[in-house]
Structure formats: C-alpha cells, structure tokens
Fold this sequence. Notes:
The complex is a heterodimer. Chain A is mainly alpha-helical. Chain A is 69% helix and 0% strand. Chain A has one domain (3-207). Chain A has helices at residues 3-26, 34-47, 58-80, 97-110, 117-131, 134-142, 148-174, 182-193, 196-207. The longest helix of chain A has 27 residues, at 148-174. Chain A is globular, with a radius of gyration of 17 Å. By secondary structure, chain B is mostly loops. Chain A: It holds the Pfam family ER_lumen_recept. Chain A: Belongs to the ERD2 family.
Amino acid sequence: MNIFRFAGDMMHLLSVVVLLLKIHKMKSCAGISLKTQELYALVFICRYLDIFTGFISLYNTIMKIVFLASAFSILWYMRSHKVVRQTYDKDQDTFRHYFLILACMVLALLVHHKFTFREVMWTFSIYLEAVAILPQLVMLQRTRNIDNLTGNYVFFLGTYRGLYMLNWVYRYLTEVHYHHRWLTWISGFIQTALYADFFYYYVKSWRNNEKLQLPA
Amino acid sequence: RNLGEKHDEL
C-alpha cells in the first residue's frame, strides 16, 4: 500500500470521526444531510458484500467493518436518538436521492467490467459514492452558518478521494497488472470535482479567518 | 483472472 492510498483512507476515517464527534459530543446533527448518510450506508453495503468471503488483508477487513459500523451508527443517531434527531433539519434536506440510486443502478447494469451480481453491485457502489455528497452540498449551501465540524467533515471527505486519485496514478506507474480501472478513475474524478466549489470557499474562509459560508 | 480486477481498495 502506498502513502497516497493510506493517507486517503486516514482522511476518510478522520471525516467519519469528526462527524461522530459532532453528533456524540455536541448531541447535534445540524447541517448534516441524512440523505447523504443513507447513500453512504448503501455504498458500503454494496461494496463490501465480500467482507467475509474475499480476504485481502487484516487492514482491509477492519476498515470495512469500521466504515460499515460508523455509517450505521450515524444513521441510528440521526433517526432514533431522542436528542440528536431533533436537531436534524429535515426541511433543508430535500434532495431527491432516490433518483440518484435509480440512475446509478441503471448505469451499473449498463456499464460494468463483468456481468455478475457481485461486480454489478460493486460498480453501483462506485457510481453512487461519486454522487452521494450532492444532498450534503445542497444542504450546506442553504445553511447560513456552517459550524467548523461540519465544514471539516466535508473537507476531509473531499480530500479522501483526491488522495485516492494520486494513489491510482502511482499504482498505474508502478504496478504491471494495474489497468482496466478506468471506471473507478472516471467516477473518482467526478466525485472529487464535485467538491471543487466547496474547496474554494473552504480555503478562502480559512485564509481570511472567516466563518465558512457558501454563496446561495 | 478476467481483467486482473481485484477490489483491494476501500
């Protein structure tokens, strides 16, 4: 495993930790899109179908369990915790995420490497992950005061796939059997590009020492 | 293996 991939995974982990910290310590999920969280849970379920059958490394297995467990605990907090669920801003979270699921499933059925259940579900998870942040980005734009933890959560999440792209370039250059990954690369590129606007305002607010606010 | 595709990333 190269440093880019590892740093990417750590960013991903950090984003989840930051979000859980906000929810657990502040007992608040204000500004967080439940729809994005539902999409991520679905992404992890579909991608990690092989969790008990396809062993790659202890690291991989543990990370898979951590991502699945954290995704479900976030959903539990936002939907069932008596204090946290009151802070969920349902009216601002209006993205029609079922359309994303449907579109990604159709695309996965049409464009994939291999037509097997496992492979199509994996491809679906790759497509869905690329766009899963959209409900969250829409919600951020509507929120006037984005708190630091929420801003950092989205920032770490965006950095994660950015680092994965460097990992792909590195692996492409150093590994002989590392090709035919274009499907992942295109999706990963789109996923990272979606954050471009957010990154711009995040860095700007950080440099000017101002509170993060996205233009409407 | 077909395409050498092994999902070793997270």
